[in-house]
Amino acid sequence: MSALELIQLASNIVFVALAAITIVAALRRPTRGNIDVALLFGSLGIVVLETRVQTALADVSPLWTISVSLLVMALPYFLLRLVNDFGHVAPRVRRAAEIGLLLSAVAIVLGGTPSPAPITLGLVAYFVVFATYAGVAFIPIARRTHGVTRRRMVAISFGSLVLGSALLVVAMPILIPDTAALSAALVQVLALVAALAWFVGFATPVALRRLWQEPELRAFLVRAAGLARLPDDSDVIEALQQGAGMTAGVTAAIGLWDQSHQVMRWVRDGEAIERGPGEFFAWPAFESGRTIFSADLSRERPQVAAAARDSRVEAAIAAPIKIESRRIGALVLYSERAPMFADDDIALAQLLAEQCAVVLESRRLAVEAAAARANELTARLKEDFMSAAAHDLKTPLTTLVAQAQTLERRMRSGKPADRAGVERIAREAKRLQHLVEEMLEASRIEQGALQLQRELVDVREIAAEVVARHPEAGRIRVEASGPASGLYDRLRLERLVENLVENAVKYSPPDAPIDVRLLRDGTELLLSVSDRGIGIARTDQERIFQRFERGGNVDDRSYPGTGLGLYICRGIAEGHGGRIWVESEIGTGSTFHVALPATEGAMN
Amino acid sequence: MDPALAADSGQSSRPERSAASPSGELTAREARPILIVDDDRSILETMSDLLHGEGYQVMTAADGQEALEAISRAPVSFVLLDMRMPRMDGWQFAKTARERGHRVPIIVMTAANDARRWAKEINADAYIAKPFDVETLLSLVKRFSERGRAN
User: Fold this and answer.
1) pTM of whole model > 0.80?
2) Is residue A377 part of a domain?
3) Which among A387, A395, A410 has CB closest to B40?
């Protein structure tokens, strides 16, 4: 047996095997896709078998030859049917293929065997055009898809293009003399390559599917481990959908069951969708806890047929997402084309749904734990506040007690009271009073019971007075442009400016200048206090206005404080219908801005 | 039992030979000064006036940094140390002072509830909680000055 004959024998065996496999599959599961696959490979197998019989029997009837030729000419048509199952073939092209098939049949029957060269050339041209069409049509589909589906599309495209070239080789002896033997061998090889590529594409063996899915699945599992930590629920869902879709090579959707409203919540293209019981394909899967599959939604599921047509979905698998017996939601894999799915995709969908369940459950636990931590944090903040408040109160008390007792001792031993000592008592008593007032003020703000005593005041004056009173007035500049009078609560604004200036002094190096600016801007009066101090991290810039909260870079030992000052400032600003915010950079300094609505009285 | 006064028990209860008078008059000439460290100006002034009035020599510092400078300039009898201060706090001061080989006794004085724990943390010799009674402070100061002279 020559090498050529060996190749022929091998390829013939493969063709017959492919035919047998696909026919058995179609008989077991007669879906449209499976039937079309069986048609293509079955006819290929028959053609091969017939050719073998032909060569075995030296003498064959012309009828025999004609039937083989007809089957060969039917191949592009069967191929096109399959292409239509997987992708989309324009009706015009399908009609053209049908007409071409009819014309070929007529030409073969009338032309006799062997056909005259022009007819053969015409037949070859017909075959090559449609095989090439199929090959080219799959390129954009392959580009659009991913994972397993993309590889299948590439295989189909490749197979079709190889078949086209095989047919060109068939025509070779007509154009170039003495190449019949070479052409016969080449055709065998090319046809085998094409058939294998199609088989891989149209009827991917399970082992190969697994092999292709594995990297995506592995990537999904690796990513899934970190998903529970994403900040937002919808981010988690989106990442799961994307990962599941990539793994299965189709589109994936995840619905979460809302127990209190009895609806399934989906997100599609960033839009939230709610569906009640029975209103969506995955409902039976969710309800029964079993995975379901439909190859033809519009026929098999009348209740979702319209939705399926709208979103051009033909086939879908739905798997319940559950932790033990608790149902969380459902995972749906869907495709515009039915044959994208294979039996083992159902198992894959289950596996993906299980992973989703694990991620969503750990997400839930993480959220719960975070809430518990937040509660704990609030409690700790309160405790910190209590001890900071006690500390703050005890500091002036220390002087008060010690100084009073010292005076007492002096008087007992007949010395006069010293002036400095008495002044210290007065000063610390005042400070204590201020602290107590601050705590009361914070508590009033918290209860929403801040009552403003509005009167016509000049905020420029207030700022200047506060600064002048400050022991470090020398490094504080006040700048004002435009009128700054209005109906405000004088004492509250004093406290506001005092607190901001005090913070600026406290958190900046000694002698670093501090700027207080006042500006009338349209309907608002803008007050700002800038320092060149330690600054506030971006993440802290909202938080510091809350009660008991202080900047993360504020060491409690170096900068004692209650964390009430800015809370009170915000309360006063908002009590006036205004706002307070901060612009700051760590290490560079901070500028606190207060915007108060300008009032009628400000028009002078 | 006075919770404000602790540590240092058992040790150094040895009576001083040249027994000091309660007013401490004889200390002033020879004894090293007491260093008071506190960021609160009023407390510093009050304590300084009080101890001066009792005949002690006193130095003051507003934070750990100043205190370190003070003890490295001239030896002091002991340190009355506030813990929470800007620039350099009590912990840092105690650590640095020990690292530099100063074996000066330290009395922690703080308004925090953790006075005892903090005193332990920095291996202090005693602690006193703010606000304190003048009598308590004076007896503590007296005990430590006698100890200082005994050494």
Assistant:
1) no
2) no
3) A395
